[in-house]
Amino acid sequence: MCQNCVNNVFPDRGHTCLENGSYLMNFASCAQCNKKEMIKIHNKEEREEDQEEIITYQHVCQNCDHVIAEHEYRFCVEDGYQEYQMTCLLCGSGEDSISILPDDPRKGMDLF
């Protein structure tokens, strides 16, 4: 991972969790070749561990193959909620939780 390639290290992305793609607004330029071109996705792996889907890949400079960042996305269903998590130097950190029920029981609790 290369902190010199990004504007902000692990920016807070709130509820945004990307299972593919790149957060190009945070890409400053490649620290190795000094170019700001499109970013390739390299070494993408999808696996399942303990009923959790995990997707990992590398963000790589299209020009010189310099590794910019390692991206990790996690998804699972736990206690009636879909849980999402993303960690990446370039794309940032994000978490989200969505009820699998049509009406989220947590939203009714906000009224009191």
UniProtKB/TrEMBL annotation:
<keyword id="KW-0010">Activator</keyword>
<dbReference type="InterPro" id="IPR038543">
    <property type="entry name" value="Churchill_sf"/>
</dbReference>
<keyword id="KW-0217">Developmental protein</keyword>
<keyword id="KW-0805">Transcription regulation</keyword>
<protein>
    <recommendedName>
        <fullName>Protein Churchill</fullName>
    </recommendedName>
</protein>
<dbReference type="Pfam" id="PF06573">
    <property type="entry name" value="Churchill"/>
</dbReference>
<dbReference type="InterPro" id="IPR009508">
    <property type="entry name" value="Transcrpt_activator_Churchill"/>
</dbReference>
<keyword id="KW-0862">Zinc</keyword>
<dbReference type="GO" id="GO:0008543">
    <property type="term" value="P:fibroblast growth factor receptor signaling pathway"/>
</dbReference>
<dbReference type="GO" id="GO:0045893">
    <property type="term" value="P:positive regulation of DNA-templated transcription"/>
</dbReference>
<keyword id="KW-0479">Metal-binding</keyword>
<comment type="similarity">
    <text>Belongs to the Churchill family.</text>
</comment>
<dbReference type="GO" id="GO:0008270">
    <property type="term" value="F:zinc ion binding"/>
</dbReference>
<keyword id="KW-0804">Transcription</keyword>
